[in-house]
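# step 3/5: fold
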Amino acid sequence: MIDYFRAEKLKYRRTAMNGITFFMPLLTVALAAWLTHHYFSVDSYNWWYIGMYPGFLGIMCGMIGGKDKRKKNYTIWPLPCKMGRIWDSKILVGAALSGIAMIFVVVLTIFAGRVMESVRHIQFFVSPSVGVQIAAGLVMWATTLWQIPFCLFLTQKVGIFLMLVIHMGIYTILATVVSLKSWFALFPGAITARMMCPVLGVLPNGLILQPGQMTYSPQLEEMSSLFIGIPAALLWFGLFWLAGRRWFEGQVASK
């Protein structure tokens, strides 16, 4: 499996993949630092998991899946390799790159926050501790892994552009509306935004989680939702992975 992973990773050595893995986190943090001051930390993460991160994952999966798709997968079908392993390696490369991007966001947000406090003397109205921000990054990464096999499958079926439209459209609705419901775990796109309510204390719409705010409800503060949302997100990840793997292997049998 390591050889498959290395081979898949080599495909993107001279592409823009590494650039967007760093640039999109940097852009998110820079915009939050520029446009929001007293709520910088929570806005940085909120803008990331609501919009920039799913966009990054969609672009990344478009590059991973689109490279072979453009040649109708004829570059890999004849190989004396297990097609299931090739699918696995694509997902693992995506998971690794998404983890690196998440690390960049957390590190840049913590660093920028310290600079804004010590150099510009900005006092944050909400300032999550370093430990909370690291925990938030881990939860965000774990609960968004499902997007990788989902977007890879859509790339193979409908192409990169339609994949981005479908993925971002569905995700935006689920993250901002369905995440507020008690049955949020039934839809993977709603889980991350719901998890950030008790972890970071921020609503999906970017407002602080406190009584009186639009869309606030006491149940959004319950830490117990983590024990529902995280396993559910990982279960969705496994289901999408296995379903996509079976479909990908079936494409060879039909040739």
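# step 4/5: annotate
Residues 29 and 44 are 5 Å apart (CA to CA).
# step 5/5: archive (pending)
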